[in-house]
Write a structure and sequence with these properties.
alpha+beta, 6% strand
Length: 262
C-alpha cells in the first residue's frame, strides 16, 4: 500500500530540497573563490580572444558577453577541487566562465572500450564560444529549461563559428559534438534490443558479461544515432546561419526535436 503524502511530509521534502540547493550554491561559491584566487589562474578580459567573444555577441546581441568574467585554470587544480575531465564550464550562480587552460592534461579513462575511445578535439577559442553561449542562454532568461535544450543551444549556435574556421560538418560532429551526443542516447534500451532480453531479469554479473560481449555492436548503433542527431542539429542551425538570424530576448528558443531520434 502506498503511503499518502501528508502536508507535514511535503514541508519536510521542500525544506530538505532547499537546504540541498543552498549547500550546492555554497560549494559553488567556495570553488569559484578558490579558482579566482589560485596562483595558477589567469583572468581573461575582452579583447583577448576577441573572435570568440565577437561571435557570441553577433549571435546574441542582447547580452553583454564581453563583460563576462572568464578564468583560465590548470587541469590539475580543477581536478583537485572536483572538476575532473572538464574542458570548461559556466557557473550560473556567479556568472563566471572557467576554461581548462591545458586540455591536453585532462584525465582520460584508462579503459579501452569503444565508448571510452570517443574524445573531443577542440581548441581553447572553441571552448570559450561554447561556454559563452551557455552564459547567453541564461542571460536571455532561459533558465529552468532542460539541460539537453541548453546544450542544444550551445552546440547548435557554435556551428557558425566552427564553419568559419574551416571545419566540415562531419569534423564538427565527430570532434566537437559526438562526446556529448553519445551521452544523450538510451544505451540500456539498445543493449536490451541487441541481446533480446529484459535487462531487469538479469543478474549484475550476467549483464556485465553480455555487455562486454556485445559492446562493439551496441556502440556502433549508439554512434550512428548520435551522428544522425549531429547532422540534424547542424542542418537546422545552418539554416539559421544562412538566414543571418541573431537571437534576442523576444525570440523563443528554437525547440528542436533532434534529441528525440533515440
Amino acid at each position: 500500500m502506498i503511503k499518502k503524502l501528508t502536508w507535514s511530509d511535503a514541508v519536510k521534502i521542500k525544506r530538505t530540497d532547499r537546504k540541498q540547493k543552498e549547500q550546492a550554491v555554497q560549494i559553488s561559491a567556495d570553488n569559484m573563490n578558490r579558482i579566482a584566487n589560485y596562483h595558477g589562474t589567469s583572468k581573461i578580459c575582452y579583447p583577448e580572444y576577441a573572435k570568440s567573444f565577437d561571435y557570441v555577441i553577433s549571435c546574441c546581441p542582447s547580452v553583454k558577453a564581453s563583460e563576462v568574467s572568464l578564468y583560465f585554470c590548470p587541469a590539475a587544480y580543477l581536478k583537485k577541487i572536483g572538476y575532473d575531465r572538464v574542458a570548461g564550464f559556466y557557473d550560473v550562480s556567479h556568472r563566471v566562465v572557467v576554461i581548462c587552460e591545458d586540455t591536453d592534461k585532462i584525465t582520460v579513462s584508462k579503459q579501452n572500450g569503444p565508448f571510452e575511445s570517443v574524445r573531443g578535439k577542440f581548441e581553447i577559442d572553441e571552448i570559450i564560444v561554447h561556454e559563452l553561449l551557455h552564459y547567453a542562454h541564461h542571460a536571455m532568461g532561459y533558465m529552468g529549461i532542460s539541460i539537453n535544450l541548453e546544450e542544444e543551444f550551445a552546440y547548435g549556435n557554435s556551428v557558425g563559428y566552427l564553419k568559419k574556421k574551416g571545419y566540415s560538418d562531419e569534423e564538427i560532429i565527430r570532434y566537437n559534438f559526438l562526446p556529448y551526443l553519445i551521452q544523450t542516447i538510451n544505451t540500456r534500451k539498445i543493449f536490451a534490443q541487441v541481446i533480446g532480453e529484459q535487462l531487469s531479469t538479469l543478474t549484475p554479473d550476467k549483464l556485465k558479461r553480455l555487455f562486454k560481449k556485445h559492446e562493439q555492436e551496441i556502440f556502433d548503433i549508439v554512434e550512428e544515432i548520435a551522428l544522425e542527431k549531429g547532422r540534424k542539429l547542424i542542418l537546422i542551425y545552418s539554416e539559421q546561419i544562412t538566414d543571418n538570424v541573431s537571437i534576442n530576448k523576444s525570440m523563443k528558443t528554437n525547440r528542436l526535436d533532434f534529441l528525440d531520434l533515440s
